[in-house]
From TrEMBL, chain A:
It comes from Arsenicibacter rosenii. This is Oxidoreductase. One of its GO terms (cellular component) is membrane. One of its GO terms (molecular function) is NADH dehydrogenase (ubiquinone) activity. InterPro entries: NADH_Q_OxRdtase_chainM/4, NADH_UbQ_OxRdtase, ND/Mrp_TM. It is found in: Endomembrane system; Membrane.
UniProtKB/TrEMBL annotation, chain B:
It comes from Arsenicibacter rosenii. Its EC number is 7.1.1.-. This is NADH-quinone oxidoreductase subunit A. NDH-1 is composed of 14 different subunits. Subunits NuoA, H, J, K, L, M, N constitute the membrane sector of the complex. Belongs to the complex I subunit 3 family. PANTHER family: NADH-UBIQUINONE OXIDOREDUCTASE CHAIN 3. GO terms for molecular function: NADH dehydrogenase (quinone) (non-electrogenic) activity; NADH dehydrogenase (ubiquinone) activity; quinone binding. Keywords: Cell membrane, Membrane, NAD, Quinone, Translocase, Transmembrane, Transmembrane helix, Transport. HAMAP family: NDH1_NuoA. InterPro entries: NAD(P)H_OxRDtase_bac/plastid (IPR023043), NADH_UbQ/plastoQ_OxRdtase_su3 (IPR000440), NDAH_ubi_oxred_su3_sf (IPR038430). The keyword Coiled coil does not apply. NDH-1 shuttles electrons from NADH, via FMN and iron-sulfur (Fe-S) centers, to quinones in the respiratory chain. The immediate electron acceptor for the enzyme in this species is believed to be a menaquinone. Couples the redox reaction to proton translocation (for every two electrons transferred, four hydrogen ions are translocated across the cytoplasmic membrane), and thus conserves the redox energy in a proton gradient.
UniProtKB/TrEMBL annotation, chain C:
The lineage of its organism: Bacteria, Pseudomonadati, Bacteroidota, Cytophagia, Cytophagales. It catalyses: a quinone + NADH + 5 H(+)(in) = a quinol + NAD(+) + 4 H(+)(out). GO terms for molecular function: NADH dehydrogenase (quinone) (non-electrogenic) activity; NADH dehydrogenase (ubiquinone) activity; quinone binding. The chain crosses the membrane at residues 24-42, 62-80, 92-109, 115-133, 145-167, 187-206, 227-252, 258-280, 287-308, 314-335, 361-384, 396-416, 437-459. It is a multi-pass membrane protein. Signal peptide: none annotated. Keywords: Cell membrane, Membrane, NAD, Quinone, Translocase, Transmembrane, Transmembrane helix, Transport. This is NADH-quinone oxidoreductase subunit N.
Amino acid sequence: MILSLLIFLPLIGALVVALLPDNQHIPFKWLTLGVAMAELLLSVVAYTQFDQQQAGYQLLEQADWITLPLGNLGVVSIDYLLGVDGISLPLVVLSSVILLIGVLSSWTIENRQKAYFSLYLLLSGTIMGCFVALDFFLFFLFFEFMLLPMYFLIGLWGGPRREYASIKFFLYTLLGSVLILLVMIGLYLSVMDPVSTAVMAGLATDAASVDQDLIRLVQAQLADMHISSSQIVHTFDLRYMADGGNYLPNAFLSGAGETTFWGIPARMIAFWAVFLGFAIKLPIVPLHTWLPDAHVEAPTPVSVVLAGVLLKIGGYGFIRIAWGLFPDGGAQYAQTLAGLGVLSIVYGGLNALAQNDLKKMIAYSSVSHMGFVLLGVASLTSEGINGAIYQMVSHGVLSAMLFLIVGVIYDRTHDRRIDSYRGLLQVMPHYAVLTAVAFFGSLGLPGFSGFVGELFTLMGGFQSLWLPGWLPSVAVSGIVLAAAYLLWSLQRMFFGPLWTRDGVESTLTDLNGRERLMLIPLGLLALLLGLLPNVLFNLSNATVAQWLEKFNV
Amino acid sequence: MLSDFGIILLFILAAFAFISLVLFGASFLRPDRPNVEKMSTYESGEEPVGNANVQFNIRFYVVALIFVLFDVELVFLFPWATVFGQKTLINETKGLWGWFSLAEMSIFVLTLALGLAYAWVKGYLSWVKPQQKIPTVDTKVPQSLYDQVNKKYQPKAKASQPASGTV
Amino acid sequence: MLPIILLSVFGIVLLFMGFLKSKVLLLPATLVFILAALATTFMDWGKTYLYFQNMLLTNNLAILFTTIVLLSAFMVVALSNSFIEDEQAQPAEYYALLLFSLVGAIMMISFENLIMLFVGVEILSVAMYVLAGSDKHSPRSNEAALKYFLMGAFATGIMLFGIALLYGATGTFVVSGIKSYVYTNAYGVSLLLYMGIILLLIGMLFKVSAAPFHFWTPDVYDGTPGLFTAFMSTVVKTAGFAALFRVLSVSFVGVYSFWWGTLAALTCLTLLIGNVTAVYQTSFKRMMAYSSISHAGYLLIGLTALGTQTKQALVFYSLAYSLATISAFGVLLVVSRQRQDTNGVNENFDAFNGLARQNPLLGFVMAVSMLSLAGIPLTAGFWGKFMIFTTAADKGIYWILVFAVLMSTVGIYYYFRVIIAMYFREGAAEPVKVAPFYRYVLIAATILTLVLGLAPGLLEGLV
């Protein structure tokens, strides 16, 4: 029930906002804030209800949603299936925090408030849906539908090149999601639902009586082709898709890999298709070019949500779907994949170093930091995966903070160039302190969350049986680069005598109450996560350990 | 063994052969003494004026279309008549067959007649006469003066000539 | 087969209603007539009947296609209130011609004898030729009518030749007769049959505007008055695909290996030409013409991967496509007429500038229909594409699937140009005026699109 509420509270909120008359006196922002706070509360409740020792999915909810007979393909049955485990729960909590901060940051939106907050709530609901959906189709629907509110948020409230940026964002991500759609159809045709199949094949009287042993029996019979194709019930359930025993023998994406294209097993092609789909979202070099454009044009709150939450769906998709459903692909191409991660780390870092636009610099630093996630996942070690999840949460907090910091200065002067400012410390001391916290956290200073995430992913990389030692060694240079571009910016903008390019020193006032309310909790959160990493690791460890079992061949 | 198509092909070939044979034969047998009158288009003596590719009045097409419709109807009526008149069928159904086929054909003819009525009411059949155009001349003499002169010298016996403003 | 007779009679009745002084009755009368035809269509539900000495066959599939066609026609007629206001127009004749063309469409959907297919195509086409040229004072409309007539006559000629060859090969015009010929001569099919299949396919592909027989489409769609373009791109296409499906799935399924490769290649060509060329259009109407070509491509995928679920995919896709296309043209009609530029009606993308601000409802209707055409989830168009893709995946034709998916990404680009214009650009200050009934029709189409997007299972078990 609680997960449904997480999804539907913002969706209903969006509907309510959309149906209310467009009136200046209606406090759309307070309404949205209320929903966002309720979301945070709900996710905290979900966190307390979650049993950290247990590895599997919890808080499960299931209902039939769409049943569509497709001739001899059987019945497409798409379930409304929700659940969280140690991989998705941290991201759910992170999302609710960032979305709440995003509402606060949206306080200055004056233009078309009704449409803005309606879309914002729609976006919140679909993001939550993405993280808690356990039916592949449901996940896909949320994943693709999420693009629409984002597209309008960038396109309507964005900067001068917003049309270009928004359609580029849309096309890139959509290309990724259609690749995922193709693989989803292929998987659907290759996977059976053991419970329903047992009932259909007459091995069980009803679904409730099917236990683990019976599932083993059904799988064994399936492998021996004792079950006729008319009795096989196909499924989109991610839990069943992750179990190799449920794959039909001779099916398109079956584990044995009989189907090949140009000598490459179809499974491997499918893995790469899914990987590309999520790599665009993460993003991974060379598929990252939409990200700087989108960030530069997006208004501050949308940037915050984009960097803080949306990119994490890419990483989540890696763990849950790309590696989760195709472990063989992940293992076989571990080196190439980690190499791509390292490339992102270094390339993103070098690009960030070359930027003069503060927002663009942070966008490229995101590319660099998300490279660590890929490196961690590709290492296929407990440290690496836990580190990747940790890095996602940490980057969510820190990048949100960084974009808010850009928003603060941009609100005052409408100028984001680093070399337009000098000596800001003198007029904006509190701002300088919080910027320093965000920058140091981001560059991986021990004591902040960024350090732990990067340390663990690198440790995973070094310990991995699949990766050569030089790969993580090169990745370490990403930390050096981060220190370089962040500290250099800090020095250029905040130290020395006060100067601005356009002579707008008088507009530079220190943080107001709302800005403090956004930045200080995020700073504290980064510090807390850095000092007590176990809060997160305890959450994810059990799940990750079970997740890694299929790689211990 | 010839297929059905083969027979058709044979027919076509035979038709060509027959026609060429007849034409060639005739050209050998007949006397050939051309003169100017014989070579003209119409032997009746009518002289052709201008190109045959002239634009017809659009009304011809409408009339032709309606004509074709009823022509086809006529073509359809002939086979119907043979079936309608079959004595055995009429006897077997105790006369019902006659009424039935008559009703069917009436519906068919009536539907077409309805179309004719539609075209009629729409005015596609009325052949509007061209309106007489009275030429005008740019002159300083007012029209009333001409009318006076015309009235004065109007022939009394033949008053059919219309009064005109021409000089 | 009551609807065929009813629609013919109603058409004649409408012609004579045109003599009445008042034109007010025409629109409601036409709507009632179409509804009556729709009601009688369902009298044969659940049964399979042969009519007129094996000339026509009705089954549930034919009834569903007929329903889509009649529903589209209903909406097009409902959006036609501008005729009444126009002094020059002759609404009675237009409505009568629409009803006559529906007769042709229903014949194309439910033919059992190839002669009936030909007669249906002709009845449908002749009416459409006239309607394409109905704007007598516009040179573009005249050009469209002439082009459509010449190309269409050429195509039906080819089709008739194909039918003749099929008769030569099999000795029958009956669809199931050809099927049994193919099955009994599985190893020695006459060459004439292959020639006949190819010519028949060419003729039909012409009608549904699939590449490389699409070249008439943009000019004709562009020149034809908007309302009839909507009719053309929904009714003609649906009927054409119903006919193609019938002839391919019944008669020629035995020689699938012969035609599927050709059809697959044409499918890819259609998708490529339709989608890529649509990107470069400045006129919304021309864009819709190319988009209709690309949708013919998606529908052809379903035929290429002919299987048991093809019919369901075709029905769903046609319905989704028709709903979205008609509501898009509905919005275009009011907008283009009320936001004229120096050249008369403005059918370019910039006519939509700022529409969402002034007319949120029209903006939303247009946005939903564009999203549905683009195949974004939670719209009917997504499920249509999903079913088509599943069909191809089940048949194992993955390369065509990958290509189609890439092309659908291209589609997003041009469909979103309208959304960009409506939502992101500044436009005329005064809102576009929309008549209430007009608005209800648009709302109904949009709601139907969304409902089918949320619950595609509604059509479950119908096919």
